[in-house]
Design brief:
single chain, alpha/beta, seven-stranded mixed beta sheet, UPF0173_UPF0282_UlaG_hydrolase, UPF0173 metal-dependent hydrolase Mucpa_3902
Amino acid sequence: MKATYYGQSCLELEIDGVKLLFDPFITHNQLAKDIDVNSLKPDYILVSHGHGDHTADLLTVQKNSGAKVICIAEIAAWLGNKGVDNVHGMNIGGGFNFDFGRVKMVNAVHSSSMPDGSYGGNPAGFVIYAEGKKIYFAGDTALTYDMKLLADENLDWAILPIGDNYTMGVDDAIRATQFFNCKNVVGVHYDSFPVIKIDKEEAKEKFIKAGLVLRLPAVGESVLL
């Protein structure tokens, strides 16, 4: 399974040739200035919540690709009002089998509204079951005891926010791995704005000291999960 990072929380998983793009925010992110948003042609777009730094390029990418959007029911309704009908609405705790594998929507502790101020439902994370692996995309979230519910999943990788201020920081992300027993982490949601800038070397050292693997791919870089 290949993961390509596009900055902030925007990441694409390629699963047996099927592309899943998470939280498209590229054109307004200076760190992703070399990424051509019009070149992205995912088969699915997964949206964790409605904030602009997760949805700014959602309509553009969906229009260009025709991708099916997987999101909470309120965002599905918002998309319907925008003329997007290739949408699969879900809610917290529910799962569904797609052609690439299974998606379960799990809790995230954050806030959510759409860029135009519309109600965005609850924020969420996703667990992806595909290629015999289990990948947790946490979305924007605080450290929460609900993460302990994932302990029995035997997660292979966790994609976690580590930028602090708006979400978990590095220390709480490390604590989170102890809640759900996963040693492999891809860090996201950092450096895009001054208040979430991190010391990447210090973060890596903290993860190593905790016996964990932290991958921080550069924008545009692909890694194997």
